Amino acid sequence: MISMQSTPGIDASNFVSSFNLAFYFMVGIALLFMLGLTVLMLYFVYKYNRKKNSKAVQIEGSVRLEILWTVIPALLTLLMFYFGWSGWKPMTKAPDDAMVVTSTARMWNFSFEYENGKSSPELVVPVNTPVKINLVALDVIHSLFIPAFRIKSDMVPGRETMMWFLPQREGQYDLYCAEYCGLQHSYMTSVVKVVSQEEYLKWYTDTTAVTTATEGSAPGAEGLAILKNRGCNACHTSDGSKLVGPSYLDLRFGEKLIVLRDGKETEVTVDETYIINSIYDPNSEIVKGYPKGLMQSYKGVVPEDEITKIIEYLKSLNEEQ
Amino acid sequence: MSVTAGMTEPSYLEFKGKYKGIFSWIFSTDHKRIALLYLFSILSLFAIGATLGLLMKFELIAPGKTIMDAKAYNAFFTLHGIIMIFAVVIPGLPAVFGNFMLPILIGAKDVAFPRLNLFSWYLYVAGVLLVVIAQFTGDQAPDTGWTFYAPYSFRTAGNMLPAVFGAFVLGFSSILTGLNFLVTIHRMRAPGMTWLKMPLFPWTLYATAWIQLLATPIVGITLLMIVAERLFNIGFFDPTLGGDPVLYQHLFWTYSHPAVYIMILPAMGAISEIIPTFARKIIFGYKFMVASSLLIAFVGYFVWGHHMFTANMSGQALYVFSLLTFLVAIPSAIKVFNWISTMYKASIDLQTPFFWAMAFILVFMIGGFSGLILGSLAADVHLHDTHFVVAHFHFIVFGGTGFSFFAAMHHWYPKITGKMYDTAWANTGLTVLFIGFITLYLPMFYMGVKGMPRRYFDYDEVFHASNIISSMGSWVLYAGLLITVINLFISLKRGKQAPANPWGGSTLEWTIPSPPPVENFEETPIITKGPYSYN
Questions:
Q1: Residue A191: C-alpha distances to residues A110, A112, A144 (Å)
Q2: Residue A175 touches partner B, C-beta closer than 8 Å
Q3: Which pTM value belongs to this model?
Q4: Do A123 and A185 fall into the same domain?
């Protein structure tokens, strides 16, 4: 789904029209030239076929024509350049009154942090308010791409970059990672929800909204919501199937687990300390059979009280069996 | 004039030298035999690359897993890209038709350094083996894409070094071939062949050779920097060491973009030979064709940044790169105008190579115009890293270089093999291939505009319909490839003897027997006229 339009006729973002101008101008010129040249070529091939025209007229060339077909394409390409440049220029500077969101990308999810400390796996923004997104990549290069808004920017580890846009139409739009980042690249997606000012304020001030989401009141429901919210499920499953990382189901509290510590096989007991260590210092102990270095530390990202809830959920998985 | 009619010298295919059997090939310093060594290496690798592509398209026929998982898919597009770019398309026309035809087209007996020429092929084979083996020897399946972007490539594959080393060895093969061609063109033209009496295919090889010589060493520098980073922890590219991943992209594209012109210039050159031959007419605007080749080679050095419009480099750099990208399109446009003008008041013999040249012009225009669209900043911000880009460069490297390769194959086949091929099957192959090509790649433009990123194993339902069409196109394309290649193989046995000049061409290769004798010319030709004199 690209969009669920509520008010058709309005561009989804302020950059749609400048893209359309640059793009369709070039497509138009391209079609005109391609059609013209193709027809001309086919006509020559038909008209000057050897069966009809047994002797060619030797024409060495024409400087006048060469100048003509150098100058006209040059002027047209300069025009194309200009539309491209003028459409791009406003992207480089966000308005001073833009609201600021920080997007953090890691393999393989985006998270969006708001000025009041609220963190969300989805980008929720109020309509008609300029939004500036500071782009942070923790591990490899990612690229934040919102097709409906016609914008994209790479997220480069070690560099502080930004993108901005003005959402003009309420609705829900796809958000993709556009720079290849490994195994789950095509699953590194999210959505942008453009909502009314009132709805946004309600969402923004409600800091409990995420954890008490739709998971109901089953034991560990909050923990599961946190796992989803933090993007853990991009690499770990609850049903025992193997992704890049081991499944939550493999964690049996009180039992032994074989891990690699400094490259040597060691037995550890699965307990609270182990879980905390796996989240805050994931590369110190790698579960046997899984690659090292893929997971980044979540220290300072997932607070300890969230981990307590995650552990509740993990224990509930043990009990279900 | 047939091969056996009282020739004093045997053809290069019959010649008995010091070595027998396979050794008479892999130890041969004859430019024609070396050309065929390249041809068979490249065709074998092309078969692998095309099959990987076919399987990838089958995977994409529906969202979710179809025949392979994400891991396998990522490995497939990586290997497909590496093989096709480094081992097939870059060496393609220069190594095969350049080696075979360059000395003959300028009236020489061989290239300037025949042994260096053979050594270049050894390096090519070594480089290909290194790159391919590197992909299978690390801890993980190959999954970086052919661009090896830092820092992902450092994190995932411990075997980045051998892969780039392989690219470096391949690069050296390319540098030495370029050097060889430069010296050959400067020093070995037949008496009377002034620069402006030289045919256009050698001219494009000349422009290409300068790119090979000057751009390829950057791969070597990049390799040294990776070595310094990996072994001595000097942070060039890895942000955890204080390096900058974007620097890697700059270095990568400073070579890899001029490499695109290594791919396309000789392709344009081959088309410039074919059109006058079948139009039986002098090429329109010869001097402008020469100048445009040199301009493309020169400006082509300075446009690499257009691969990085969304990578956050400085604003000034961005629009300079964008402007130059638009400018580099103009000499290409001049070529298209001149090719079509050559057909005006011509006497066109509609043979297979001419059909291929027409197909080339069509797909090259689509590839070129879509390239302009990507050169525009505002458009590229949306289209970068989507299927639009995939469609664009397949139109250029497959539609441009690939079609020209097949055009050249059908043009010079009688000369190289001494046999004629079956024209009906050749035309059928082209028709099927062309339909498949368009069906496969055209929908990708649409997917890209709609926002489907490239290198996506799985995709949203909105992209499903266009993916089905595209995947079906790949079957038709593959069938066309099979018909075309099998026809050429069967014709080796069944084809009629080729006369010396089956197409009525006016360049030097048509003045000697098919296949040519070992030393090409019994007597060194003396050149008094331009290359396309049909009076």
A1: 10, 11, 11
A2: no
A3: 0.89
A4: yes
